Amino acid sequence: MTETGGKQEGRKSGGKRRQVAALPWRGEGEALRILLVSSRETRRWVIPKGWPMKDKTDFAAAAQEAYEEAGLDGVIAETPVGEYEYLKKMKSGAARLVKVDVFPLRVTGEHASWPEKGQRTLEWMAPVEAALAVQEPDLRDLIARFAGVDLPEEERPSPHLAPTPVRVAFQRLRRRVTALWGRYRP
To answer: Residue 11 in 3-state DSSP?
Structure first.
């Protein structure tokens, strides 16, 4: 990935697609909370993320995603706190490995309406709860590290595998067959 004057020029790094994400947080100490949002397709818990934006720095694009997906305003760090990888389900049905740079966002305000309101569920969680709610092991560890909490090995659920291209194709086929079967049943 190359940058010129803090602006994004490319989306690929080492052959992998890259996204940017905000890690929304508020409070301190025992009152620290992390906001998770549900993904639109699979409804799993994630953090607001998206593709880099042509006329924005990576951290500004991450803040924009936090507004669009969760209606958040805040102060975003200019350097990522870490990164994680996940399999992104593409519109074609294929899955692609994506690396995500994560920028902490100290939330200072929440809007009553925002572009994706009603498309996602939002929930403020204690750091351990948030870390254990996400499926991606690297994101789970990143949240725990950011919050300064330890996740005992026995409390770590075995990670659920992200959808593989075969699983995604099978799910699409099953939905199509079910829809067609419903149309032609006597």
So the answer is: coil
Residue type, 37: V
Q: Which residues contact 24 (CB under 8 A, 6 or more apart)?
A: 34, 35, 47, 48, 66, 70, 72, 74, 105, 107
Other beta carbons within 10 Å of 131: 24
Gap between the Cα atoms of 38 and 96, Å rounded: 20
CA distance 27 to 107: 9
Pairing of strands 12-13, 72-76: unpaired
Residues 98, 21: Cα–Cα separation, whole Å? 12
pLDDT per residue as tens digits for the range 36-86: 999 888 888 999 999 999 999 999 999 999 999 999 999 999 999 999 998
| CA distances to 76, 107, 145 from 157, in Å | 30, 29, 17
Q: In sequence order, which ranges of the chain are alpha helices (DSSP H)?
A: 58-70, 127-133, 137-147, 165-184
Give kind and range of the element (H or E) at residue 3. Answer: strand 3-4
